[in-house]
Amino acid sequence: MSFGSLRGRLVTLRPLRLSDAHALNSILRDRRVARFLPPRVRHESGVQFVRRVLVERKRYGGPAYAILPVGLAEVVGQIRFVDWSRYERKAEVGYWLRRRFWGRGFGTDALRLVCRLGFDKMSLHRIEATVVSGNLRSRRLLEKVGFRLEGQSRRSGRSSGRWVDEWTFGLLRGELKED
Asked: Which structural domain, as residue segments, surrounds residue 165?
């Protein structure tokens, strides 16, 4: 299944490509961005990340997008579906954004766009997100678009060399909050 570009009020999402690696690498090297990312992602270069995601996209068919401000060619983040199960009609969403774009609505716009795509074009029933507990920015973003905190897994993830708790969020078809 092929997925094209999406346009929101603040962002354009276009399919991720290898040429995005340099911009994504600079974001991954920002410690404040990377501190809540899974260790695998934190330790990848932009090239390694994009190559892995493109291989996973071919295998699982889930869309992966570069996030660009409307009208600009600057890549300011990425958002994608991981572990898309067509049979169970669910997927997990993962995202990260250049720090200077935090708190300006870019993440909210991007998340709403991919959730709409998931429900409308991918026939998803459920979208999940896993967040390191303490990542309050990500928690607020998820809750703003309608995700609900469903639980906390104790010491289930690694961050900065130590075990951390993770929050699990879920969004069901019909629960997406618009502006």
From this structure: 6-172
- Provide CB contacts within 8 A for 46, sequence distance 6+: 20, 21, 22, 23, 24, 25, 26, 27, 28
d(CA 161, CA 145): 31
Q: Is residue 178 part of a domain?
A: no
Give tens-digit pLDDT for 51-70.
Answer: 999 999 888 778 999 999 99
160 torsion bin: left (phi>0), alpha (psi -120 to 50), beta (else): left
Q: In the chain, what is the straight-line distance between the N-terminal and C-terminal CA atoms, in Å?
A: 29
pLDDT, tens only, 138-170: 999 999 999 999 999 999 988 777 899 999 999
Tell how strand 90-97 and strand 126-132 pair up: parallel
Specify if 38 maps to a domain.
yes
CB 150 within 8 Å of CB 168: yes
Neighbouring CB atoms inside 10 A of 148's CB total 12
CATH number where 69 lies = 3.40.630.30
In a domain, 179, yes or no: no
pLDDT tens digit string along 71-87?
A: 999 999 999 999 899 99
Whole-model pTM over 0.85: yes
Residue 1 counted as domain residue: no
